[in-house]
């Protein structure tokens, strides 16, 4: 068997099992320990996991920065930007269960007055606001997603990632920066191509290996010097 096919089959099984686990959480949720802090998740919410750890560890938020967290899930990245000193955090997601989890966690960590959680498909409900920092942990793989839980891991026709890079400049301040999560089993080449085509430079700033088959990355993305202002 081709090694890449075997690896893809292994990742498929692992991701499908995780999706099942997300769905069978008790109605009142469950609490998970992540980077030394407790986070609560309700059914159908993507759990805090190693995938976002490189981003959280590489993240640099200046005191008073404004942050937009795209695809917030349980809200972990957004909450760590609050701990980092952000004065305004907007966390968006399309999944109602994720929104419930993120709102719960914002309040539980004492950031209900700093962190707003809003229903939005990418930037659709963001408005005209621009941010110092944009964070994103989007689905890594170009694979058909059959429901909202699968959409946390799979991106049908790579539509979400493509829209992100085409539109993100409208919401980023001129000297703003993007922190972007990805993995060794994801479409990294395609993401690099999207970034370049839309006028951004992309540099890997952190990585964490979860096991012998899975490694997760954080990329720092900025406007290329020659890029035209949006």
Automatic annotation (TrEMBL):
Q: Which domain of life is it from?
A: Bacteria
Annotated GO molecular function terms are:
protein methyltransferase activity; S-adenosylmethionine-dependent methyltransferase activity
- CDD domains given for it? AdoMet_MTases (cd02440)
Q: Which GO terms describe its biological process?
A: methylation
UniProt KW keywords? Methyltransferase, S-adenosyl-L-methionine, Transferase
- Coiled-coil ranges from the UniProt annotation: none
Which segments constitute the Methyltransferase small domain?
52-189
Recorded hits in Pfam families, A to Z, give: MTS
Q: Which InterPro entries match?
A: Euk-Arch_PrmC-MTase, SAM-dependent_MTases_sf, Small_mtfrase_dom
What's an example GO cellular component term for this entry?
eRF1 methyltransferase complex
Q: Which PANTHER family match?
A: METHYLTRANSFERASE N6AMT1 (PTHR45875)
UniProt protein name:
Methyltransferase
């Amino acid at each position: 068997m081709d090694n890449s096919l075997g690896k893809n089959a292994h990742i498929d099984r692992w991701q499908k099992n995780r999706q099942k686990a997300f769905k069978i959480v008790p109605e009142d949720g469950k609490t998970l320990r992540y980077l030394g802090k407790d986070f609560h998740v309700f059914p159908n919410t993507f759990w805090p996991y190693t995938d976002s750890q490189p981003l959280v560890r590489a993240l640099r938020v200046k005191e008073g920065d404004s942050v937009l967290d795209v695809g917030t899930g349980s809200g972990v990245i957004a909450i760590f930007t609050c701990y980092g000193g952000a004065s305004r955090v907007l966390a968006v997601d399309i999944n109602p269960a994720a929104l419930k989890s993120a709102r719960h966690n914002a309040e539980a960590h004492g950031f209900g007055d700093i962190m707003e959680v809003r229903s939005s498909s990418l930037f659709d409900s963001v408005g005209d606001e621009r941010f110092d920092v944009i964070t994103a942990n989007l689905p890594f793989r170009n694979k058909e997603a059959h429901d909202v839980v699968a959409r946390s891991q799979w991106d049908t026709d790579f539509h979400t990632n493509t829209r992100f890079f085409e539109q993100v400049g409208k919401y980023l301040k001129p000297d703003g920066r993007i922190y972007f999560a990805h993995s060794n089993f994801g479409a990294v080449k395609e993401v690099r191509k999207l970034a370049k085509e839309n006028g951004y430079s992309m540099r890997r700033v952190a990585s964490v290996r979860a096991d012998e088959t899975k490694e997760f990355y954080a990329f720092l993305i900025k406007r290329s010097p020659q890029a035209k202002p949006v």
